[in-house]
Amino acid sequence: MNIQTLLNQRIQAAMVAAGAAESAPAIVRQSAKVQFGDYQANGIMGAAKALKMKPRDFAQATLEKLDLSDLADKVEIAGPGFINIFLKSDWLSQQLAQFRQDDRLDIKEVNAPETVVVDYSSPNLAKEMHVGHLRSTVIGDAVVRTLEFLGHMVVRQNHVGDWGTQFGMLLAYMERLRAESTEVSMVLSDLEVFYRSAKTCFDEDEAFAARARELVVSLQSGDEECLALWDEFINVSLTHCEETYQELGVSLERQHVMPESAYNDDLQNVVNELQEQGLLQESNGAQCVFMEEFANKEGEITPVIVQKTGGGFLYATTDLAAVRFRQHTLSADRVLYFVDARQALHFQQIFTLSRKAGFVKESTQLEHMPFGTVMGSDGKPFKTRSGGVAKLSELLDEAKERAYQLVAAKNPEMEEEELRNIGRVVGIASVKYADLSKNRTSDYVFNWDTMLSFEGNTAPYLLYAYSRVASIVKRSGMDVSALTTDINLLEPQERALAVKLCQFEEAIQQVANDGMPHFLCAYLYDLAGTFMTFYEACPILNAEEEVKNSRLQLAVNTASSMKLGLSLLGIETLERM
Ligand code: ARG
Questions:
Q1: Domain holding 18: CATH number?
Q2: Which of 211, 346, 441, 556 registers the highest number of CB atoms within 10 A of its CB?
Q3: Which strands, in side-by-side order, build the sheet including 153-157?
Q4: Is 323 in the pocket of ligand 1 (CB under 6 A)?
Q5: How many domains, in total, are found in the chain?
Q6: What's the CA angle centered on 354, arms 353 and 357, to 5 degrees?
Q7: Residue with the nearest Cα to atom 6 of ligand 1?
Q8: Is 122 a pocket residue for ligand 1 (Cβ < 6 Å)?
């Protein structure tokens, strides 16, 4: 049940009946303070202004057309013309009783599912995944899970970089190792080292550099031997990625890889089409598109370069081909790009050009979902202690170890195997949650102590809160899922918890609409806090039968909501820790 949507519809209809334009929004929000009720409609003032009416008069006229008696016991006008809505406790209990019916907690699939193509993770395969890939991978995956849960048809696209000039250098290095009869697979087991060694040869050895350039040409013209070598490299690199996805609990698999190289044969077509449409202009020998939208104050335009002097194609050309593929072959209604904010101009240009060239339907939404940088405590992009970029796999190992140390200190009598498992779950969850819980668009500081803290909006806090709620239910010794007695909301803390539980769907919807998982994180953190306040004020296990049964159902609903919410974020839960 999405209360906000329901109230928006009802109040807007009443506003229209009272004379407002069809397009006048009701703007219903959750109230910030209890005295303003549970929800507040803020749209009256705007609509009244358009009608040249006094806001309070228009609010009154709207109320005369509004019947919320089934779900609210008080609806009042406040301040300059807000409408405050106080929900009925009985109605809240009925909503919660519906939660019992299925493990979706009564959240329905959308009526009109969309095909949503989600471009995420998309690392460059020349190197190993590093901390910079965490955000796209983890945030993208949470949004994908949420969209699927709501019934949308999601197509994952891991747009990995496998086709740049760097590959010439890497192939030349593989060739050299072969010639020295060094076991190539051994050296490839650490891609960072491999990349660095290849780069050193490239920078210091002119013959090697020349060979590398030759190999790029052979590769791109489809030379078989060269392709075989390249295949071997790509395979190893993708296997490294997959290990990281598995460790992270990310739903990407080999079938979702749609690499840059896959578009190679279509790039000339893209350029030709732009040419036919008269969009291309030659500039210093390169093929460019100049769009006025991208002019600066001096009128200078940053062009989109689609073909270099000499015929080579670029990152942008591939992205244009990808847009066409996503529209025509994948039939996207929406395409979401979880890519670093520093590529904002690139995507604006690709989207604008795709529309001009008719590569996408008018109704198709292309959305860049930018994210900020992971920073170190020194205020610069996060690096390892030795100053290198932090490899994701090493970071995750450290997270597991640190979490293990923490839980082992708390539970000296627990078996090693269970401790290791808790350490793994908590460690991985901490890294993911630290990322997910921050507003996507801002930078954030990577800090072990804050992300592993048992206090505040962190994974350890939420996982611990979940295990506590689960253990209360377990200790009742009852099959709570079979309880069908009434849920009575008598105490204010019971009511507050019920309202919070009923707002779950609103949080999920926000994640799906805006691609921002931090809304769900904030919701879960609030829910856990609301439960703790309730639990302190309202004893469960030693209350008398009827009260106990009612409160137990609130506890079960809390546990189910937390578990489902965390699973949509891609976070595993623990029944004890
Ligand atoms: N491989 C690119 C990088 O590491 C990201 C690709 C994002 N997706 C896209 N369609 N351009 O920066």
A1: 3.30.1360.70
A2: 556
A3: 153-157, 115-119, 334-337, 365-368
A4: no
A5: 2
A6: 80
A7: 122
A8: yes
Identity of the amino acid at 333: D
The pair of structure tokens assigned to 399 is 């997270």
| Spatial separation of the C-alpha atoms in residues 531 and 554, rounded to whole Å | 9
Asked if residue 500 belongs to a domain, the reply is no
Range of 15's domain? 3-87
**Closest to 405 measured CA to CA, from 420, 386, 385:** 420
- pTM for the structure as a whole: 0.95
Distance CA 12, CA 5 (A): 10
Is 346 touching ligand 1 by the criterion CB < 6 Å? Answer: no
ipTM of the complex: 0.99
pLDDT attached to residue 357: 97
Is the minimum distance from the CB of 124 to ligand 1 under 6 angstroms? yes
Using alpha carbons, list the distances in angstroms from residue 302 to 283, 310, 320, 369.
12, 21, 17, 22
For a ligand 1 pocket test, name from 117, 118, 122, 353 the mutation site with the most ligand atoms within 8 angstroms of its C-beta. Answer: 122
For 297, counting Cβ atoms within 10 Å of its Cβ (0-12 exposed, 13-18 middle, 19+ buried), the class is: exposed
Domain end residue (candidates: 232, 252, 272): 252
pLDDT tens, residue by residue, 1-16: 899 999 999 999 999 9
Is 79 within a domain? yes
Distance 129 CA to ligand 1 centre (A): 13
CB 135 less than 6 A from any atom of ligand 1: no
Q: How far apart are CA 18 and CA 467, in angstroms?
A: 50
Contact yes or no for 275/310 (Cβ under 8 A): no
In a domain, 434, yes or no: no
Q: Which residues of 423-451 are buried (b: 16+ CB within 10 A; e: fewer)?
A: bbbbbbbbbbbbbbbbebeeebebeeeeb
Q: Chunk the chain into consecutive blocks of 10 residues (it has 577) and report each block's average pLDDT, rounded to whole numbers.
A: 94 96 94 94 96 96 96 96 97 91 89 97 93 95 98 98 91 91 80 91 95 91 92 93 97 97 96 97 96 94 94 94 98 98 97 97 98 91 79 94 96 96 98 97 94 97 97 91 88 97 97 98 98 97 94 95 98 94
CB-facing half-sphere around the CA of 432: CA atoms within 13 A: 31
Helices (H), 127-266: 134-149, 166-179, 184-188, 191-204, 206-220, 224-248
Q: What is the pLDDT of residue 165?
A: 85
Distances (CA, A) of 50 to 20, 81, 387, 449: 8, 14, 59, 53
Residue ending a domain, among 61, 87, 113, is 87
Q: What is the rounded radius of gyration, in angstroms, for the C-alpha atoms of the chain?
A: 28
Q: How far apart are CA 408 and CA 66, in angstroms?
A: 58
Flag whether 296 is in a domain. Answer: no
Pick the atom of ligand 1 nearest to 343's CA: 12
For residue 287, the SS3 value is: strand
